[in-house]
């Protein structure tokens, strides 16, 4: 059986400024959970227990396929699953939420908002919900005889909820009748998968909920294998949640900045950023050898400027231009570079004794050297600006023969 | 491990930038956070927000001002449909009496059962039977070309295919680009002289297909011919597709002329070479030059 488990993209958990506000990024899927509490009358058949209420919301912000206000099948499924995973597993001690038996209990409400849909909503929702619940602090309550006082956060520190364990969902998607298995499918993969297996587990390797949808037939060892993978993943994610909680607690204690705005990376240059791409290196050696062999021997002479006359310099012996610039006429054309910072000289071939230098920088039309120079030379320009604009110069001005 | 061919830098032809690019001086480009104006007399429109009495941009784009209303039109955005736009979309859901179509906009567009031409071209009231056989007409995954009939209050588009030129698309290639690159023209259906036809959807989805033969297209476009397409046609379409990707990568406005020029300037290269970055650049440079010459 082919097994190609795929790891998630970068998973990130961050908390907001309020207690109980948690953001989870699983790759591109982004979810926010907010936990709040309220005092209400308990159920009649369970007067000692508090209540937990889950609510997942899918808004068009997450995906163009979601419509506002429509109770879609996916929404019902997610809600039901989250309730089963967190409420039926009894991960939260509901009896500790009781204030006055039969009269007042806390109702904890977990609102989960999907901000971006890139697949695997169940995993992200469960992580966000449980992290939010761990992060949440409810107001402290004092009972004196018949009187019940609820202290505000300023009066007394709020107390965390008592959570026994952290159940986390892990989803597996199957393709081609169970041949291929992917952990944590993204949206595209979810659209084409054959079936989905969802295992909710805690780090003590206790399965809290297991669900198979899509109607595929799974073998026993497939399910066992998935549960093993799930236990590994769950321990990793529990680590991540605990670390995030630690960091947040530390930041709040030391008075440092905490919250959503602080968790965003700042001052990061993203322009012109590309992903790391691999380079084909299998025949690099042969290619390099080929190039070296075909290349010409480098010139033995070291170029050094020769001062032919005061104010002029000559570099090079008139080699062919190797910049690859196009030469329209090849007879005895010279090129004049426009943007140059170094001293350039451009000498026409002189039959006679006199050389006429047309220097583009100089304001004179002709700069005439009275000494005899017979070499023809082309100056090369520096390519600092990267743009070499070359202009062909016609030999309009013939050298004047002037006797010296 | 993915293998990529690394290409060494080669000399590129220097082409002078067209003078029309300097016309951008008239446009005011802003990035998020840029202050547009400190004058409090302006009303703020889309893409702006008030930051301590200063009107600041919240998206990257150009500033548009209509009398007292200042808004920023983003350069890269999802498709915002207007009535009359031609779109190419993919069916994502089949619901009661309507289909949901993905058109690269913020919400999936809606194609009502009453807005399609039934096969056979009959004009009759839609019955319950029609509702049950919706999937026979259009299934999830089908591509259609349609026109925007109206816009719902939440921003979703209502499409219709009540014309012979719209309907289900048959064999061809879809290229997904940014909607900002498609030029608004009188007609978005073109039969290119190189031997293929193109539908430039306003939503950035471009459909390339082999030119229809002698016979007229069937009514409503629900008849999809499954005849094999000849190799030459397929090569033309592949080349066009790569050209479109090249133009899209260099943010060139797409319309029939630019696509055609790009096709012509890509002829000296092999089809698969067009995807190489330096070849792309070269082709797009030549295309831009030709477009400038044509204008001026």
From TrEMBL, chain A:
GO terms for cellular component: cytoplasmic exosome (RNase complex); nuclear exosome (RNase complex); nucleolus. Keywords: Cytoplasm, Exosome, Nucleus, RNA-binding, rRNA processing. Pfam families: RNase_PH (PF01138), RNase_PH_C (PF03725). GO terms for molecular function: mRNA 3'-UTR AU-rich region binding. Residues 302-333, 371-404 are annotated as: Disordered. Residues 14-139, 165-231 form the Exoribonuclease phosphorolytic domain. InterPro entries: ExoRNase_PH_dom1 (IPR001247), ExoRNase_PH_dom2 (IPR015847), ExoRNase_PH_dom2_sf (IPR036345), Exosome_comp_Rrp42_subfam (IPR050590), PNPase/RNase_PH_dom_sf (IPR027408), Ribosomal_Su5_D2-typ_SF (IPR020568), Rrp45 (IPR033100). It is found in: Cytoplasm; Nucleus, Nucleolus. One of its GO terms (biological process) is rRNA catabolic process. Residues 393-404 have a biased composition (Basic residues). Its main location: cytoplasm. Belongs to the RNase PH family. This is Exosome complex component RRP45. It comes from Oncorhynchus kisutch. The gene is EXOSC9.
TrEMBL record, chain B:
One of its GO terms (biological process) is poly(A)-dependent snoRNA 3'-end processing. Residues 78-150 form the RRP4 S1 domain. The keyword Phosphoprotein applies. The keyword RNA-binding applies. InterPro entries: Exosome_cplx_N_dom, Exosome_RNA_bind1/RRP40/RRP4, KH_dom_type_1, KH_dom_type_1_sf, NA-bd_OB-fold, S1_RRP4. Residues 172-210 form the K Homology domain. GO terms for molecular function: RNA binding. Keywords: Cytoplasm, Exosome, Nucleus, Phosphoprotein, RNA-binding, rRNA processing. Belongs to the RRP4 family. It comes from the Eukaryota. This is Exosome complex component RRP4. Component of the RNA exosome core complex (Exo-9), composed of EXOSC1, EXOSC2, EXOSC3, EXOSC4, EXOSC5, EXOSC6, EXOSC7, EXOSC8 and EXOSC9; within the complex interacts with EXOSC4 and EXOSC7. The catalytically inactive RNA exosome core complex (Exo-9) associates with the catalytic subunit EXOSC10/RRP6. Exo-9 may associate with DIS3 to form the nucleolar exosome complex, or DIS3L to form the cytoplasmic exosome complex. Exo-9 is formed by a hexameric base ring consisting of the heterodimers EXOSC4-EXOSC9, EXOSC5-EXOSC8 and EXOSC6-EXOSC7, and a cap ring consisting of EXOSC1, EXOSC2 and EXOSC3. Residues 29-66 form the Exosome complex component N-terminal domain. It is found in: Cytoplasm; Nucleus, Nucleolus. One of its GO terms (cellular component) is nucleolus.
